[in-house]
Design a protein that fits this description.
Length: 326
């Protein structure tokens, strides 16, 4: 399934966030600048892309029609996602932040009943609430078990303060990101493409990032040159490339909760990339045998998601073929 491959590719670029955020914190940078600079740097790149595609005015018109929802869901999907992620990096290692973030694969499945689908009937369109895909939920929990195995290597360093300052913020981010993403897809109703939606959410979140950046400037001063450079790398890699790839993948399967869960589960592969990056760049210890077992469990979960998503697509095609021959 091409959407799963897009999700895995996005995860590779997303992993840069966890590695460099931790690197900036270890170098004395503030999470306030790490979070706000990323989105400020994203704006010019996204504007150039949307301008080149000649649909900037359409985006601005759509935002003007529903400004409050744009501000609300962009705040939830971007600010409540990335703010807590960078805050957690100030108090916990990258492995803990990246590992805890994988709860989002379960969160995405659990959020299904908050959304509706319109089914065409003889009496007109009917609004039906989405159900939790039980099979997808079970597979997502399997992947999460694999993530827990990976964390056993660092269990000795786990404390209550680490739980409150590092794990809890990531839990908030894990639910906020898929919620904001899905609500914006619902709001756009297919009128905007992925690039427009990412730019729109970035623009709508700017007031909050300006407040965070302004507070950082008043309280701790300007960011260092090193933090500016690393934030720029995060903005391009994670903010522009990864976010766009992930949103393209979710856009393609937004009407199928099982496939959507499979695409969102690809974020679990971030753990692989974060481990490799921290070992190579931050001299973190290599995973032990238990952690390697966890990696295999994640791989099995991803293969199961891919298999059942492809099987579901085949079943739908067969049903449509039968309908056309009735």
């Amino acid at each position: 399934m091409r959407e799963i491959l897009l999700g895995i590719l996005a995860s590779m670029f997303f992993a840069v966030t966890f590695i460099l955020n931790r690197s900036m914190e270890l170098a004395g940078g503030s999470w306030l600048w790490s979070s706000s600079l990323r989105f400020l740097f994203m704006v010019p790149f996204l504007i150039v892309i949307v301008l080149w595609r000649k649909n900037l005015m359409q985006l601005l018109q759509e935002m003007r029609k529903n400004l409050v929802p744009w501000l609300l869901w962009s705040f939830i999907g971007f600010v409540l996602f990335y703010g807590p992620i960078t805050f957690a990096a100030a108090y916990g290692p990258g492995w803990l932040v990246a590992g805890t973030w994988q709860i989002t694969i379960v969160a995405g499945v659990l959020l299904g009943p908050l959304f509706y689908e319109f089914i065409q009937t003889n009496n007109g369109p009917v609004k039906i609430r989405n159900k939790i895909p039980v099979k997808a939920l079970c597979i997502s929990f399997l992947i999460f078990i694999g993530v827990v195995f990976i964390q056993f290597q660092n269990a000795a360093n786990f404390t209550l303060s680490l739980l409150l300052l590092s794990v809890l913020p990531v839990l908030i981010a894990a639910f906020s990101y898929p919620l904001g993403n899905r609500k914006m897809m619902e709001l756009c109703k297919g009128k905007l493409d992925t690039y427009q939606r990412v730019l729109g959410m970035t623009l709508a979140s700017l007031p909050f990032w300006f407040l965070i950046g302004g507070y950082a400037f008043v309280t701790i001063g300007a960011p260092s040159n090193d933090q500016i450079v690393q934030s720029f790398i995060v903005a391009v890699s994670s903010g522009v490339i990864a976010t766009t790839l992930f949103f393209i993948a979710t856009d393609r399967v937004k009407h199928d909760q099982t496939k959507l869960a499979a695409v969102e589960a690809t974020q679990s592969t971030q753990v692989f990339f974060v481990i490799v990056g921290e070992v190579l760049l931050l001299s973190s210890p290599f995973p032990n045998n238990i952690a390697i077992i966890g990696l295999f469990i994640i791989m099995i979960g991803m293969l199961l998601h891919s298999y059942f998503s492809k099987k579901g697509t085949t079943n739908v095609t067969v049903m449509k073929h039968k309908e056309n021959n009735i």
